[in-house]
Design goal:
By secondary structure, the chain is α/β, with parallel strands linked by helices. The protein has helices at about 10-15, 60-65, 85-90, 105-115, 170-190, 200-205, 230-235, 270-275, 280-320, 325-335, 335-350, 355-360, 365-395, 395-415; strands at about 45, 70, 95-100, 120-130, 130-140, 140-145, 150-155, 160-165, 215-220, 245. The strands form three sheets. It has a six-stranded mixed sheet with strand order 4-5-8-3-9-10, sandwiched between helices. The protein has a two-stranded antiparallel sheet with strand order 1-2.
């Protein structure tokens, strides 16, 4: 049979305890409804089989023999987790900096970015740090399973809002308080990149990923119109991070932002939340702007490191060597000129080979040995010339020419005589 948790008190009382149970007084708490187990209890059944109550009258002895003990619990389930939206699941890491008038008001910052935000599923408490406060929120859950296979969900904490303490918004405080916070992840990312790696589209895509540790944007809160005093701090911040300027005048009218700060220029808090949490194109544009500013800072730091290295080398050379005096140098040069020339001449004298120094071409034994070495090549050359001449004489025309020449020479000689 099925037991309904809404069973009345009279029905419960009809199920008496077994005869061997501890006795109780008529007015004891065991006979009242308050004797039911607490909220966290579970069902407990006796060893006897359950039987529904009968409508016909029964004797007390029959009821005592068929009764059983029954405890009906009241269970309280935990509150259900908020289901993340499709935008929240694909948001990635979002790191924002908030400065200006109202940055130290935690309720104002939370209402500006997180209140009435359907993509946020969990908000952690504020935490203090050296320069202000940090608020972490989540747009998705991280699922874990223990050794028994039980599921456990924890907030992703992928949204980080850093509210810097209120200060005078001028150049000095910007350099000392805001820029170190912005450049803190710059140094950690720069250590992971090879110094020889040049800026490229692939490197920019890698740095602008949804899980990049760089800050996504800086939000400046202002309750007044544009002023010249804030131009200097803004000009110092824009080369390092995309800047979003939220102006609110006395009549709660939003003033337009300056054109060189960021491509995203919301005119209301709702537009700011929509662009950051529900516009992948806007968020991707902000991340690419942050990556470009990091690459520019990296190039400046590399150039500065090269200049500092050359300066250190120059200072090292000048500190170890005496200063140059032209007059003193000329006097020393004139006095040591002849000495330096003599030393250079001795250094440039050719060095003879010991083997060449021992050879004497006029030595008799050497001359005879050298002449004997030439006899064999001379004999071969003479025999080759004779054989060539004989071969030519074998020709009839050559013989006639030789004999004719001989006769002509004899006749001319006789005529001269």
């Amino acid at each position: 049979m099925e037991f309904n948790p809404s069973t009345s008190t009279s029905t419960i009382r009809t199920l008496h305890a077994p005869s061997n149970a501890l006795p109780s007084t008529p007015n004891s708490p065991s006979e009242s409804v308050s004797s039911l187990p607490s909220v966290g209890s579970s069902f407990f059944f006796s060893s006897a089989a359950a039987s529904p109550p009968r409508s016909q009258p029964q004797s007390d002895h029959a009821r005592d023999s068929t009764t059983q003990g029954l405890i009906i619990p009241s269970l309280t389930l935990p509150a259900p987790l908020r289901r993340p939206s499709p935008f929240g699941k694909t948001l990635g890491d979002l790191r924002l900096l908030v400065v200006g008038n109202g940055a130290d008001d935690r309720e104002l910052v939370s209402s500006l970015l997180l209140d009435d935000n359907e993509d946020v599923v969990d908000i952690s408490g504020w935490e203090d740090f050296e320069h202000g406060s940090i608020l972490r929120a989540s747009t998705d859950w991280i699922e874990h399973r223990d050794a028994h296979g039980l599921e456990k969900f924890e907030p992703a904490k992928n949204v980080e809002i850093i509210a810097l303490a209120r200060h005078e918004f001028d150049d000095n405080t910007t350099k000392t308080d805001i820029l170190p916070v912005i450049q803190s992840p710059f140094h950690s990312v720069s250590e992971l990149i090879d110094p020889r790696c040049q800026p490229s589209a692939a490197l920019a895509n890698l740095i602008a990923s949804p899980w990049s540790p760089l800050h996504t944007a800086l939000i400046i809160l202002s309750n007044s119109g544009p002023s010249v005093s804030e131009d200097g701090p803004i000009d110092l911040l824009t080369p390092h991070i995309p800047v979003i300027l939220m102006r609110r005048g006395p009549d709660h009218t939003y003033f337009p932002s300056r054109p060189h700060m960021s491509s995203f220029r919301p005119r209301s808090a709702a537009a700011l939340r929509s662009g950051l949490f529900r516009s992948p194109e806007t968020l991707s544009s902000l991340r690419y702007e942050a990556a470009e500013r990091f690459l520019r800072w990296r190039e400046v730091e590399c150039a500065l490191a090269g200049i500092n290295a050359s300066r250190r080398e120059t200072v090292s050379l000048s500190s170890h060597g005496p200063s140059w005096n032209k007059a003193k140098w000329e006097a020393e040069w004139e006095s040591r000129l002849s000495q330096d020339v003599a030393i250079s001449c001795e250094r440039e004298k050719p060095v003879r080979d010991p083997a060449q120094q021992c050879f004497d071409p006029l030595h008799l034994s050497s001359l005879v040995s050298f002449s004997m070495c030439l006899l064999d090549p001379a004999r071969k050359l003479l025999s080759r010339s004779i054989s060539t001449f004989v071969d030519k004489l074998a020709d009839t025309q050559v013989r006639i020419a030789v004999v004719g020449s001989l006769c002509l020479g004899i006749g001319i000689g006789m005529m001269i005589r």
